[in-house]
Design goal:
The chain has two domains: 248 residues, TIM Barrel, CATH 3.20.20; 88 residues, Translation factors (Elongation Factor Tu (Ef-tu), domain 3). Helix 1 packs parallel to helix 9 and helix 9 packs antiparallel against helix 10. The strands form four sheets. The chain has an eight-stranded parallel beta barrel with strand order 1-2-3-4-5-6-7-11, surrounded by five helices. An eight-stranded antiparallel beta sheet has the order 17-16-22-13-14-21-18-19, with helices on one face. The protein is α/β, with parallel strands linked by helices and 413 residues long. It has ten helices and 22 strands. The longest helix has 18 residues. Helices cover 27% and strands 23% of the residues. 38% of the residues are buried.
Length: 413
């Protein structure tokens, strides 16, 4: 089974792979559905692919906009680039782009984006016959429907989203952003109007112009905002239905979010391969679920996977849930010594004070807690009691044990 993680930039890609992802998906800005967060240039994309391949990991490149005529020359140019730098697959929505990809990418796998909303086995069979090796299925499918698609087209690889934000629009094809502020979601420029607060009003037709407010609370309502999908408890069911590729959403999320979620799902997938009693397995999975609740989310749902909702999908009262822990730093350098305890350099993201108890989220192995000892501010060249985030600060501390680079630190708010 494959765990796929988002890689909005090169640094995030490194964290995703370090914390257990088998592959990453990313895109060049112009033709990806996350145009504003991708910082990949052609040169950096080539570097990223080499970095992943050196670690026996895979890179999938998104070319999944719905193209207009004026996009096609640029599409051809970028497909020719991809043919040279050789990602493991290209993810496509548009049939026209698929036709061009078959022309230029003869030795690179083609995957169908969830944006193409494949919802039945006849459609899956059609796409397979067009040269698509894998389909990222529409999020509106139930596990039973997925199982039928696998049964009817067994040679086709199936991929699904198991964690992250859900879109209010069908298979993510939203028109609201273009309507409100001329930023098309289908061209990678969504402004996420579904997450905005709205005030709703009734207008009685015989009383035009007289509006009666309909509100959830004093702040309005997040009437279109969906909860986050979370399938950590049901990976076995998806696997039995024929899914072998599990995808995490979140190219715009922080490295802390990415590292934590990837680690949890890595452990969840590995757990499906280990023989444990049902009771022990349930306890272990529940622990993983609790870890996910420590990460910023909008509450969790299983979406459409169980037909009628197992948990309600909409979250009307706020845009997200604020956990009681916060991301405060990342270890960016380790300084070993033969004569004294190891020292580490920490990039500060939120305030860190001497004496704070922090939890270290390590790429491999068990997380652990420790107290922040004396803090040396590397910018001011002096010992300090606290350092605040948002200033690109780096600090040096001495620890009693070695802690790996790329460890994420979090603490109670």
């Amino acid at each position: 089974m494959e765990l796929l993680a988002p890689a909005g930039n090169f640094i995030k890609m490194k964290y995703a792979l370090e914390y257990g992802a088998d592959s990453v998906y990313l895109g060049l800005p112009d033709l990806s559905l996350r145009a504003r967060v991708n910082d990949y240039t052609p040169k950096k994309l080539e570097e990223a692919i080499k970095y992943a391949h050196q670690r026996s990991k895979k890179v999938y490149v998104t070319v999944n906009i719905y193209a207009h005529n004026y996009h096609l020359p640029k599409v051809e140019k970028q497909l020719q680039l991809l043919a040279k730098i050789k990602p493991d697959a290209v993810i496509i929505s548009d049939p026209g782009i698929l036709a061009l990809a078959k022309k230029y990418l003869k030795k690179i796998d083609l995957h169908l984006s969830t944006q193409a909303n494949c919802t039945n086995w006849q459609a899956a069979k059609f796409w397979y016959e067009q040269g698509v090796k894998r389909i990222i299925l529409a999020r509106e499918l139930s596990i039973n429907e997925i199982a039928e698609i696998h049964k009817k087209v067994p040679q086709l690889e199936l991929e699904v989203f198991v964690h992250g934000a859900m879109c209010v629009s069908y298979s993510g094809r939203c028109l609201l952003s273009a309507y409100f502020n001329q930023r098309s979601a289908n061209l990678g420029d969504c402004s996420h109007p579904c997450r905005w607060a709205y005030k709703l009003y009734l207008e009685e037709l015989t009383r035009p112009g007289k509006f009666i407010p309909v509100e959830e609370d004093n702040n309005g309502t997040y009437i279109m905002s969906s909860k986050d999908i979370c399938m950590i408890k049901y990976l076995d069911e998806l696997a039995k239905a024929g899914v072998k590729h599990f995808k995490i959403e979140g190219r715009t999320k922080s490295i802390s979010y990415l590292a934590n979620v990837v680690k949890v799902y890595r452990q969840g997938i590995d757990l499906t391969k280990v023989r444990k009693s049902t009771k022990i397995r349930k306890v272990m999975i529940n622990r993983l679920f609790q870890e996910l609740n420590k990460i910023s989310n909008r509450e969790f749902t299983t979406g459409f996977y169980f037909g009628t909702e197992k948990f309600k999908m909409q979250k009307y009262d706020a845009p997200y849930v604020r956990p009681d822990v916060e991301f405060c730093g990342e270890i960016i350098k380790s300084l070993k010594s033969k004569v004294e305890s190891p020292k580490v350099v920490i990039k500060v993201h939120n305030v860190i004070r001497q004496g704070d108890e922090v939890e270290a989220i390590v790429p491999k192995g068990e997380n652990f807690k420790f107290k922040i000892p004396e803090i040396f501010d590397l910018d001011e060249k002096k010992f300090v009691k606290e350092v605040h985030g948002g200033q690109d600060k780096a600090i040096l501390i001495q620890l009693s044990k070695e802690v790996p680079v790329m460890t994420i630190l979090r603490k109670k708010r």
